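Model: You mentioned two targets. I'll fold them one after the other.
Researcher: Yes, keep them separate.
Model: Target one:
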Amino acid sequence: MLITRNHIIIFLLSSIYLYFCYLMSGITLQYIPYNTDVAFLGIKQQEIGLLHYRIAFFTHVYTALFVLPAGFIQFSPFLLKHFKKLHRLSGWIYTGFVLILVAPSGFVMGLYANGGPTSQISFCLLALLWFYSTLMAIVSIRKKDITGHRKWMIRSFALTLSAISLRAWKYILVYLFHPAPMDNYRMVAWLSWVVNLLIAEIIIFKFIHHAKNNHRPAVTQSAGRL
């Protein structure tokens, strides 16, 4: 098989993604089986005393181990072509976990986010948009709207990646600007998903809309010949 530039780009992006998933798994393992005084929870001792917050937090953290790889599988053309059952299974795992567990628990956690209303509004809005885009991906595929399904899945997965981009932005801002910790957190609360969503819209416009528009003249021309 001839190795092209696209193959190299896909390999590099996949490697970077898997590396970040590995780092995220390391964060998650800190809380297993049930640790309430490590890492992030070290500064959330008041909230962790609330039963509904504990349920939301551990639900959110544990299910991330399934959502990140399941979402990634959805965008593999190879698996879609040769292993359609795996594509469907991972799709149901991804959407089911997001709709039933991850987005709702994220909303509850957002209500208690550090940084006050600025961060709280951001994380709650993220959870709502995540839920809606994932739900619309299901609605689209059930209507056999493949293009719409792809668009909504791109948006949904872009919001899923906020778990990774939040930590990346935190280090970038500290390295470049040295903001106060809470100011940094308020900024990354928005940057972590707004930038992802903008990139998703660019991808949708450039690849999906562009491909669809390029296909229309050929279809019209063929129809004219008939």
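Model: Target two:
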Amino acid sequence: MFRQRVRLTLHIVGSILRYLSLSYTIPLLVALYYGEDWHIFLYSLLLTLAIGLSLELGFKTAREIERADGFSIVSFAWLIIPLLGAAPYMFLGWNFIDAFFEAMSGFTTTGATILGKVEVLPKSALLWRSLTQWLGGMGVIGLLVAILPKLGVGGSQLFVREFPGPMLEKLRPRIRTTAKLLWEIYAGFTFAEIALLYFLAKLPFFDSACISLCTLPTGGFTPTTTSIAAYANPLAEYIIIAFMIAAGTNFVIHYQVLRGNFKMLKDEEFRLYLLFLILGASLLTFSQGISSYRDSLFQAVSIMTTTGFATCNFGLWHPGARMVLLALMLIGGCGGSTGGAIKVIRISTLLKHSRMMMRKAISPKAVMPVKYNQKPLSDEIIRDIISFLFLYLIVAAMASITLGLMGFGIETSLSAIAATLGNVGPGLSAVGPALNYAWFPAAGKMLLIICMWLGRLEIFTVLMIFLPRFWRR
């Protein structure tokens, strides 16, 4: 079984890399347009294609993808894709750790960077940074499931493992159709934001494209060092706020609303999500003063949706405001959105479960199911949510302690782990929005890379492959 699983995993990962190599053609064409060195993307394309074909053809198998195979395929794909996605940075002269960090941050839509000055990169490399986030937002594997019949029924095992958040509802019985619809909505929102930023807010087209490619995946990379603050454009900020809120919303709701089903706006998770955003923005405004309302609203939305854009240096804000931001980092967006962290659906379910347990303490024999939108949730879903939260907090605590043992301060350690495990990007203190992660030692960067990997695949998928029993089944 071990050999069969490894063979199937390498074969499918090879197929994924073969198609991923096509994505390098976009920055290659941009490099040609701007007269930049296009060879770095040609070499990256050929390297990715060669490795992909070698794995795909060298490990051919007729074995169908089973449930357990989804864990190994998705875990290794999300490790190898950033490894090869780092190639353009290495051809630019970066060392391996920094290139891997930037690529992992891109594909996992974290937005943490080692760049002190972003503008030093050629435009083609800036676009590649943004493109990695866009591909990673809804998921590289999800895109291939949507367009490749080859993955067949087994594609559902991959899509479920990669999909951000608990998937309580499919749009269509066939997972391929669901993946296709989600990607169509995702791409539609992206093009709409580009148009609004360019035509309405009058931002440069290149900047509009880069920002939009990083908004919908809640990524946070920008073509400027000072993020969105560089534009000092209130209209652009409000447009970005609207699309960040959309990106942090369950895409099932978008689908239903676009079909005219406005009852979905009464969804319990969506209402709690808006409540958290309003409460967070209000607390930040109260802490910083009424004149800061625009920055407070922007940062509340940016941090809770785990986008990570900045319009000011919130690392210098009042300690209470920074605590609010740290809490929003942990909550994250809705399940089924491109947001990271714990997610509102899990918070909502745990609040209801805790309330039910307190009521059961008074009436032990009473039957009190935990409901979501008036429908009972299965015990299996509740157990999964409790287990996820436990593992999430354990990983966060252990990683924070490890950074502390490396000599980092408490606020830096806690926020760096919250920002990378939750795929947020900027943290607080020494990793605030005006700073970067370049000064971390190699061991610290590798720890944060692992956190980004774990966070994007929501802990379980990655940890499963480290169980000896998994490879014997």
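Researcher: Noted. Anything on target two?
Model: The two ends are 7 Å apart (CA to CA).
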